[in-house]
Amino acid sequence: MLNIKKIKDLMYTKKITMYRLAKICNVAKSRIIRVLNGTTKNPHIDIVISIAKALEVTIDEIVIKDFSKSKEG
């Protein structure tokens, strides 16, 4: 799951609009909007990588890790 607040904060700090982020990531603006408004809960890894690169951060910085789900085995 993405840390939407962190992404929006980084966009604000770096003065990157959703339109510009979409262009940098080479995806449709509508896709970025769906990711940032939470409609897309688990975006494809390519989008996550693109967003991280565009914002000059690591994937770990924009992803929320959920360790509450334990694996059975």
Compile the SSE list and pairings.
Blueprint: H1 4-13, H2 18-25, H3 29-36, H4 45-54, H5 59-62
Number of beta-strand segments: 0
Low-confidence stretches: none
**Percent helix range:** 40-55%
Contiguous helical run count: 5
What's the overall geometry? globular
Description:
The chain has 73 residues and is mainly α. It is built from 5 helices and no strands. Helix 2 (18-25) crosses helix 3.
Describe what is shown at a glance.
With 73 residues, the chain is mainly alpha-helical. The chain is 55% helix and 0% strand.
Summarize this structure as a short list of keywords or feature phrases.
73 residues; mainly alpha
